[in-house]
Structure prediction request, 130 residues.
Amino acid sequence: MFDWTRSCAYDEQQKRRFHTTARSRLKKLAAELALPPGSYDVRSNKAGVAVSGEVTLHHTAVYIQVGQFGMSSGHGILIRTCKGRKNYTGGANHFVALSMLDDIPALAAAVRAITGVGRADADSADRRAA
Prediction:
């Protein structure tokens, strides 16, 4: 399991792993939310040597950004609504723990609860109903 709390500051290898892993998890999140291909992009900004930078999933209606910007609070995933992929300010900011990247179904549930975007996997819903 990835150590989301290990600082990326002044550690190029950790920053590379952080961005690679976060990009992979955000792509899994998009699949879990059943976001249509082409309705979102996943991008990475490594920023300077003293910070983690951020990895962003930007959908037409939701903006999710991962970074080590809330480490003292344990938060590092920003979730908010937006109006299109040119909208970078969007709705109210909501934060959840970076560790939620290790539980994509739970993160998807949080995104749905906060934004109303995405749908639960039909197979998962069928299993819960049974």
Summary: Residues 12-129 form one domain. Confidence is low (pLDDT under 50) at residues 122-130.
